[in-house]
Amino acid sequence: MFPVSRVPSRDELIDHLVGARIAGDVATPRENNLAHYRELANGNPYYWFGVDLGDRWSDEQDVLAVMAELCGVNEDPGHRAGQDTIDPELTVAGLDRAAAELGKAAADRSRVLTATGHPGGLLDMHAQVAAALRAAGCELVRVPLGLTADQGVVTQLAGVAVYERGASLWHTHSPAPMSEILAALPQEGEALPDLVFADHGWAGCAAQRGITTVGFADSNDPALFLAEHEGTLAVCVPLDDHVVNPRFYEPMTAYLLAAADLD
User: Fold this and answer.
1) Quick one: pLDDT at residue 1?
2) What is the per-residue pLDDT across 28-47, written as a single tens digit (0 to 9) for each?
3) Per residue, what are the HEC states of the chain?
4) 192: burial class by Cβ within 10 Å (0-12, 13-18, 19+)?
């Protein structure tokens, strides 16, 4: 692990991503990836993350082709089981594109909403991005009080929108929490965000609403990659979104903020 204060070089970050299994040979097995691609192709809305994919991705082999191109999974349709991969070069390239969006938001002092459906892994990254944007003069969207979705509460911690249920933060792929926020803001006389920095259904829902969105997604979560491929989502960064220790994302976060001139 790098010290928190150190910004890794591109090569150092790639080595770290592979060593921490954020990219490279990741923990998500090939069988799980293919099962999710099949569910999306079969029209299961749970796997669409709030993105309207219509009937354009009804062939799972087309989904696999995009995932090979944008995420770096094995492109061979005959590889049905065992190890699968995320290309660390694509992860860093995604971070560079995300940094460009963050830098533009900071320069414009944009109104930004950060959100995560993976609080066990990615909350600290989102919180650091939110704090850096606030320090750069951006306005962080405050989640209206009293919002509920999926039998839980939509709330905010350290500037990051999250889903809470039973006094605990929950992992969720649902677009419903973001939908509730975007519906409530105009009702309270608040503007929608200029930029959303999020993952899972939070990102998919915002992108579908036409908001410039940076998203993060795992190799078994194809919807956001398809959304980037179609131009609905601005950036999708491929990564394993829940490795064994959330501190393993610290070098990646440091690289992202430095590339955006927000460190």
Assistant:
1) 63
2) 999 999 999 999 999 999 99
3) CCCCCCCCCHHHHHHHHHHCCCCEECCCCHHHHHHHHHHHHCCCHHHCCCCCCCCCCCCHHHHHHHHHHHCCCCCCCCCCCCCCEECHHHHHHHHHHHHHHHHHHHHHCCEEEEECCCHHHHHHHHHHHHHHHHHCCCEECCCCCCCEECCEEEEEECCEEEEEECCEECCCCCCHHHHHHHHHHHHCCCCCCCEEEEEHHHHHHHHHCCCEEEEEECCCCCHHHHHHHHCCCCEEEECCCCCCCHHHHHHHHHHHHHHCCCC
4) middle
Task: Let me know: does 134 contact 159? Beta carbons within 8 Å.
Answer: yes
**261 touches 102 (CB < 8 A):** no
Q: Which residues of 215-242 are buried (b: 16+ CB within 10 A; e: fewer)?
A: bbbbbbbbbbbbbbbeebbbbbbbbbbb
* Token output for 140: 């962080």
Q: 0.85 exceeded by the pTM?
A: yes
Copy the structure tokens of residue 233.
């989502």
Q: Which residue has the tokens 């939070």?
A: 202
pLDDT in tens, 40-76: 999 999 999 999 999 999 999 999 999 999 999 999 9
